[in-house]
Structures
1.
Amino acid sequence: MERSYDIAKEIHDQLIKTAEAIPVFDSEFDPQIRVADERFGDFQANGTLPFAKKKQLNPRDLAKTLIDSLPENKEWEVSIAGPGFINFKLARTCLYQWLKAFSHREQIEAALATKEPKRVTLDFSSPNTAKQMHVGHIRSTIIGESLSRLLKLNGHQVTKDNHLGDWGTQFGILLYAIKREKIDLNNLGDQPIARLENLYRIGNQWIKENKQALKTAREELVKLQGGDEENLRLWQKIRDLSMESFEEVYDLLGVSFDHAHGESFYRDQVDSIYQSLESHGICQEDNGALVVFHPEHKRFAKQPFIIRKSDGASNYATTDLATLSYRSKEWRSEQIIYVTDGRQRDHFEQLFLTSRKWFEAEARKIPVLSHVWFGTILGEDNKAIKTRDGQPIKLVDLLDEAIRRATQMVLEKNPELSPEEIRRRACAIGLGAVKYADLSQDRTLDYVFSWEKLLAMQGNTAPYLQYAVARVHSIFRKLNTSPDELIEKAGLPQTEAERKLARKLIFFPTAIKQATQELKPHFLCTYLFELATDFSSFYNQDKVMVPEVEVQGIRLLLCQTTQTYLEIGLEMLGIETLTEM
RNA sequence: GCACCCGUAGCUCAAUUGGAUAGAGUGCCUGGCUACGGACCAGGAGGUUGGGGGUUCGACUCCCUCCGGGUGUGCCA
């Protein structure tokens, strides 16, 4: 029989099939296969308990009936425990076959690729132009990139779109300040974005103090939105400068996009949005603004979704509607995922409600809409992060500091390396640490920014995982020959540590599935850390280079498979691996 | 006011969505390279899951209530 990649699913299917032939079971029965506590087995089926409850049956008897009907099987031992759990303990031969069948990348990729690929648009990072990226942007950028990799690994077609904030009210103020100060955008010095940020701050101060200044700034915005050539040219230059500064960060982080349309891309479509929504009676005038209410909703019956401000200008609700429509129409997106701060949850809930009504009215099929929100990075005062002078920590500064600290550690171990090699390793380690620190906790939780937390290199961290990978490479280097031939002669796993590691490896598909379904990379992090831990324990206990070919073979197979999974897993987190550290 | 999120070991976090005796890291204590690399490994101490009540075979998870922290709530994104 061919070894199935997802053993949990294999057990699930087997139980369903068996239950179908037993009269007391019906279609409501869900086996609920879960990874079992190590004390009880490898997988467990919890499903008989809730089913027995619903049918007023004895759960232990029900479980017994079910396992008595299971066909003869050499793959796993089955037993009943406690109130009616069914435990499955995999035979060593089963683990062995699985390892042999799924130790290489191509095998894994083929096994994970879905038969129903979807076109998914991933909207993430999305910084505002004319501003520097600060630590707050790290979450959307890193989570988004990780999700795109996970979705692709599962066989989906992903389009990554950096939805820049490049068309807001801020440009009126900025253009006003640029003109008043007679600034030459081609001559802003080596920190052009910092200059622009400063200009904006000054401009903002002026308009608060002076009514005439406020009026002029508004006029600049109207001129820009009206297509004024001079203002458009300045705006474009600001956008270009901003993109350059973003690219610097994205290069460091290994993040890329297919598009960076930004809000400005949709500026000519806002009128048709108003018309369409008005013609379908979805929106209404209220206090001079065009708004959408949702009477069926407890909160949004009263809290409006403003799609046109009372001064006639569009806002991000308008461009988000246009963007959604565009992605559905032009890219034929079947799902759109937005990765943003949790404070925007109301906005997206309203956007989704409005879009569903709109698409229904136009008889268009609406994509699946997912708001992947994350918690805020806080300062010591438990408020959204700010440094002492009121400016958030710049993202490049965080990344530079991470690289600096990693450089010290690399130098300590290998002072003789070339500067390029030190830099390469320090980037992988330092940036990996930062990414992992963020990705490894549930994204919905806020956390207090701390250098100590983000730059930790011991324990449950990226360097620990990278170290495990480097150790496997080290073993293979010592081997001095391709392991494949030796692996051919592998015997069954024998020792405690071998079995424990093999057992952990078979849970990889479960971890990937969970992280992808929930759009939560931390599930994968937890798994990878456990895998690396079991591997570390294994190579400390069981020497790989031993004369017995069967023993050496299985240990090499375990090393090879562990390496493959750690490398794929880290790649899904956007973290680089090294062959030596 | 209304709505939402959060509260788990000294600290930072998990807990397979209602499953078995709540697990890791860090810090603290003890031990381990003449070994394939010590960013490591083995072990120990550390808990009334904010408090109280309820639902049930079973609750960190669901419901009610109270306490504490945070966010959103009409013209920023």
2.
Amino acid sequence: MRATHFFLATLKEAPSDAEIISHKLMLRAGLIKRLAGGIYTWMPLGLRILRKVETIIREEMNRAGAIELLMPAVVPAELWQETSRWDMYGPELLRFKDRHQRDFVIGPTHEEVITDVARREIKSYRQLPLHLYQIQAKFRDEIRPRFGVMRGREFLMKDGYSFHASYEDLQREYQNMHLTYTRIFTRLGLSFRAVAADTGSIGGTGSHEFHVLADSGEDAIAFCPDSDYAANVELAEALAPVSLRAGHAEKMMKIATPGKIRCEDVAALLKAPVTRTVKAIAVMHDRQFFMLLIRGDHTLNEVKASKLPFLNPFRFASDEEVECHLGCRPGYIGPVGIRDGIPVIADRTVSQMSDFICGANEAGYHLTGVNWGRDLREPDYVFDIRNVVEGDPSPDGKGPLSICRGIEVGHIFQLRTKYSEAMKATFLDESGQSRAMEMGCYGIGVTRIVGAAIEQNHDERGIIFPHAIAPFEIAIAPVGYGKSQSVRDAANKLYAELKGAGLDVLIDDRDERPGAMFADLELIGIPHRVTIGERGLKEGTVEYQERREAVAIKVPIAEIGALVRERLGA
RNA sequence: CGGGGUGUAGCGCAGCCCGGUAGCGCGCCUGGUUUGGGACCAGGAUGUCGGAGGUUCGAAUCCUCUCACCCCGACCA
């Protein structure tokens, strides 16, 4: 591609609303333009990247035996009503009426549509298994779109759905996809990790997320450096402490702690470690008031808590409700002396504590030396309701956990028969029995991958694209293109040679000054560059530089074509 | 939705407190000089100051309403 025939739209300064580095760089490099909140135009340069990502996904999906189709983005409401998701999904489902006042949605995901396809087409176990996928624009009316393409409202997604005659076959395909995703993200050149995940609102049983590792990631991942255990912290189990509750050594005492509401402050005032304090959290399920207890330095895991059957769903109690049930405002509440009708749910860690510190249910006072059994009744329930922290024992018993952050770019689920039962997607098995199909579902955030790749690969000059998804693999930078016939000839000759070898090559024939030209080529992340100038040509050399390297190497003009082709495998 | 903030030229911003004919840098156009790391000189174009209403002789500036966007909390690829 000749730069003068292409459309580069770089910016020296990033628009001020861009928050994270990948968003800023995508805007500055002219990959995307914002049209509305969370909605972006993919400019020609950005589209080239997107297409390369798509191609890799498509190749690997096909190789794994999946078959591509394309479903409509606009879906009639009846399908969503069949599975009750019309009512369950909430406001991020974009709904509208057509001219006949019929309800439609813009699909945020396509379980209903694909299940409808399956139930119409599949009658016999002989037609199974079947895995269909598409790469399509989705729309989710996110509460808060942010980080550019990372959490857009409209985004490109690869979503695949598989149908099986047995759970065993679903598990086989699930493993197949686990492997396929690993291959895809490896080919994309990303540093990633597969982690055990919560199944969320889509429902079903087994589930893994694929995360690109990046400090700016929105998810926290707990992993064990000594084994292959990795899980979203939403899911990672906090094991019960191995040591049993120590005997009590202190008498319970009421201490004035005016103005000290946070556990850290109370601990500091009493010169005690925070790990001796207990935090009480008041929640409501319907009309029932509950008290949750976690150690002062821990945080509540709302996903775990909401999985407790008697709490599902729960919400945090208002100040008024807390006062009504405990006679005290939040900040000084605790489990001692409360009514019998208030169930106390203690985290595993809390249930093993002794001589602990908690609120006294009286403004400005805490209790110290509190002990289960002696000063208050044993907790009504003991569950794992906290987030794991760095250093907690790994659930697989192989050493302490570490925590890192990731960007979720892929997610695989075993849906089982949730949708096939709701939509009567059945088949006849070998014995002529009608059975619901086992289903799996497999998503990849195509647009998000571009953001994640940049988040992971950039420096102060701009983007450094992995070869596999770079908009161009190599750039030719002629210095003095307009003025020097010899530079022009050498550049065009190399361009023709590399193009002929099948490389994606950009020749910067804009006749820009060298500084501007280099800055642009570096900003947009082209991984290799050949610089051709009169100075070098006089001694018969050109310069070759990898985007990641600090310096260029001189190469005899006669050898540059071969060298590039060798480096880029063409 | 709750809390905080911002809307002035394509992008980044000043001006607003204290009303008086809208500015700076980058970019853009023309001409010239330049040409190995975002050049220089000269000339030029570009704004319903987010929108509506109000106060005032006069509003970017004060008041009211509205819209959009951004940031912090509940969602997900």
